[in-house]
Write a structure and sequence with these properties.
By secondary structure, the protein is of the alpha/beta class. Helices cover 32% and strands 21% of the residues.
Length: 512
């Protein structure tokens, strides 16, 4: 009997270990995946786990320094001031970037990767390759335009399964707030318990049949649940208004003229939605009935009355933030070519004066962070040949170009490297609850973008673009400043001068 017991015990130990492993993998997937993924040498173009990065321009929370960053097993373990000063051991690899800027990797919290269901639009593989090539080390994927949309724990699992072995950068996930789960607490709680970082809602039709719009009552119901989880609600803030500015398709206006489309979505749409939202966010103040809830307004386009409402709510102590996007900061309505539907998005790109005021708000801190709202589709839905702005799919394809577009536009307004890092790294990390990301600091993930701000390049057919449909991007044909050289994700060199690591070893990020 004793002999049999001694033979069985090792087998039982192994069995229990496997059970615990898969149980914990389900519960703490974001923690376990790095331990599995980082062990493979195919995850990185660099055959070292312990190495130094040195540069004359390293963007840190304390400012720009000339120095070195020590990385071991995917984390930053020391930051030393003084160019060329690093470990004494000759066994340690040192990568000298000279004058190139070493900065925290960008965190893009507003990306549509469209998988599962619409990989012909984008997909995890091409989307995260493009992110890595642009110095973006973390994206947060929207609950649409994938099919089915991510509005339950079951549909989140479909998305996690689809992402397996396809993501080159870390990926978090927003769930969707729709009437069905807003009015059914158990569905919404199940989605939050499954690990979404927060939920997204539309206050106007989304254009996707299985992602219906929400009213302010749905939003209030959702916030009451989110308050307990202390996770944000991100909102597409437009409400259609009955006004003389709204044009019907049968009106005598040229659909190939951008002004025709612009007039169909006036600033009053944004203002009306935000007015309703700030009527609710007053309860998110300390001691309020929704304390713990947070409202985040995505892709703000209107720099006038809508922005004023947000500033006023912030001054009262409401828990509210706002983002805008590079296309609103880089383009103005006056310059959009006749019939060029690549520029169609919602809210629309407005006039040059509005762009100037948006930049003013960004630099003064009234706009909290930047995101791409990368929203690709297939060429036939963009109607490039017809050039019909009223019928074409709306969305700007841009994920790979976040950094150079922001820098090329922003440096004209005095944007600094420190401000750029705050807007694209630190503040997005704080907003999305990504505690170990967003700054080059000891203990953080070694998520790093290396780029040359002074280096100009042309986005033409010869430039390597990794988006599914490069020709649909409004940025193609532009000359930009700020070329990304290398990108590290958790210490893995995932992109270097046009080449990606052999394997996709990004980590899905799930809220605990």
């Amino acid at each position: 009997m004793d002999q049999l017991l001694w033979r069985v015990l090792p087998l039982l130990t192994i069995l229990v270990s496997f059970v615990l492993f898969f149980y914990l993998q389900d519960s703490y997937r974001a923690q376990l995946y790095p331990l599995i993924k980082l062990s493979g040498d195919k995850c990185s173009l660099l055959p070292h786990r312990h190495f130094w990065i040195t540069s004359k321009r390293i963007v840190t929370p304390q400012g720009i320094i000339s120095g070195s960053v020590e990385i071991n097993e995917g984390k930053i373990i020391s930051v030393i001031e003084g160019y060329g000063k690093q470990g004494k051991s000759k066994q340690e690899e040192v990568i000298d970037y000279g004058d190139a800027v070493v900065m925290p990797g960008l965190i893009d919290v507003h990306v549509h990767l469209d998988e599962p269901g619409r990989t012909e639009w984008e997909g995890f593989d091409t989307g995260t390759r493009a992110a890595a090539a642009g110095g973006v080390t973390t994206v947060v994927d929207m609950p649409l335009n994938n099919h089915p949309t991510t509005v339950s724990k079951e549909t989140l699992k479909l998305k996690l399964d689809a992402a397996e072995d396809k993501i080159y950068v870390d990926v978090g996930f927003w769930g969707g707030l729709v009437p069905e789960n807003a009015l059914n607490t158990s569905i919404l709680e199940g989605l939050l318990n499954a690990g979404v970082l927060g939920v997204k809602s539309f206050m106007c039709p989304s254009g996707i049949n299985d992602f219906p719009m929400t009213t302010i009552d749905h939003i209030k119901a959702g916030l009451s649940v989110l308050a307990r989880y202390r996770r944000p609600l991100v909102v597409h803030a437009e409400i259609q208004q009955d006004s003389e500015n709204h044009l019907e398709l049968n009106d005598n206006h040229d659909p190939r003229a951008y002004l025709t489309y612009l007039n169909t979505r006036p600033p009053s749409w944004e203002e009306a939605a935000i007015k309703q939202l700030v009527g609710v966010t007053k309860d998110t103040r300390i001691g309020g009935t929704l304390e713990g809830a947070h409202v985040h307004i995505v892709h703000l386009s209107d720099s006038s009355a809508s922005l004023d409402l947000i500033k006023e709510a912030k001054s009262r102590g409401d828990s509210i933030t706002v983002e805008t996007c590079p296309h609103y900061l880089a383009f103005s309505s006056e310059e959009i070519p006749y019939g060029d539907t690549r520029f169609k998005c919602s809210p629309p790109i407005r006039d040059a004066f509005n762009k100037e005021k948006l930049w003013e708000a960004v630099l003064e801190g009234h706009i909290d962070l930047l995101s791409s709202d990368h929203s690709p589709t297939v060429p036939k839905l963009k109607l490039l040949e017809e050039g019909d702005f009223l019928k074409a799919w709306g969305g700007v394809s841009s994920l790979q170009f976040d950094l150079p577009v922001t820098w090329s536009s922003g440096k004209k307004y005095g944007l600094t490297l420190e401000q750029l890092s705050l807007l694209w790294s630190k503040k997005p990390a704080t907003f999305a609850g990504l505690e170990s990301k967003g700054a080059i600091a000891v203990g953080n993930h070694a998520d790093i973008a290396v780029w040359q701000p002074e280096l100009e390049f042309d986005l033409n057919d010869d430039y390597p673009v990794f988006l599914k449909h490069p020709s649909l991007s409004a940025y193609m044909g532009r000359r930009l400043s700020g070329k990304v050289l290398d990108t590290f994700v958790r210490g893995n060199l995932v992109f270097k001068k046009g080449k990606h690591a052999p394997a996709a070893c990004g980590v899905p990020i799930l809220a605990k």
